[in-house]
Amino acid sequence: MILWHGPPGTGKTFAMRALAWEWRRWCRVEYVIDPEQLLKDSHYLVNVITHEDDDDLGNGWRLLVLEDTGELLTVDAKEHTGQGLSRLLNLVDGILGQGLRLMILVTTNEPLQALHPAVVRPGRCAAEVLFGAFTAGEAKEWAKRTGRISPASGGTLAELYDSSERSVRAGQRRVIGF
Fold first, then answer.
1. What CA–CA distance (Å, rounded) separates 105 from 92?
2. Does 105 map to a domain?
3. Residue 56 lies in a domain
4. Using CA atoms, how far apart are residues 171 and 169, in angstroms rounded to an integer?
5. Consecutive 10-residue runs of the chain (178 residues): their mean pLDDT?
6. Distance from the Cα of residue 65 to its chain's centroid
7. Structural domain harbouring 100
8. What single string gives the DSSP state of each residue in 47-115?
9. Is residue 176 part of a domain?
10. Which end of the chain, N or C, is more open, meaning fewer C-beta atoms within 10 Å of its C-beta?
């Protein structure tokens, strides 16, 4: 399991797109639209994890993306979603997942301490990445690399894009003639 967490707007979805693009030659990325249903219905889950596509990549690696699934990973997840968390953990490093060339990228806006201890225990995640706001220095470097207008301070990736767009719009004068 790869766990990405952090507040909304910090770039998790942006990074997911970049990862899919970079891994495209050796890993097929599959986005799960309804993670709750996937983990609720064991027949559906088995069908998804054992599905092989005709245009499969040579080595068969797959990345299942479960975006914004924090509610499935919290301490009280069993009360709200039944055995979904157990199925996910068994798929990640239990008998169910053995021998599969399958990675699962889970993203959440939930703080790490709100997640079930079984999710964040040492050794469970191949990577656990916190997405946060940019510092003022990082924001300036981002603006320099992307050709955007440098913000006065730091902020989330969404805030930096918004600030940059507002700056561009404010600098444009529109003349409307009749």
1. 10
2. yes
3. yes
4. 5
5. 95 95 93 89 83 62 91 81 82 80 93 90 92 93 87 87 69 44
6. 7
7. 2-130
8. HHHH---TT--TT-EEEEEETT-GGGTBTTHHHHHTTHHHHHHHHHHSGGGTT--EEEEEEESS-GGGB
9. no
10. C
The number of angstroms, rounded, from the C-alpha of 43 to the middle of its chain's C-alpha atoms is 25
How many angstroms separate the CA atoms of 118 and 121, rounded?
Answer: 5
User: Can you tell me whether residue 148 is helix, strand or coil?
Assistant: coil
Residue 12 amino acid letter: K
Helix axes 84-93, 42-50, angle to 10 degrees: 30
Do both 123 and 154 map to the same domain? Answer: no
- Residue 33 carries which side chain, given as an amino acid letter? I
pTM, entire model: 0.83
| Residues recorded for the chain | 178
List beta partners, residue 104.
64
Distance of CA 147 to the CA centre of its chain: 25
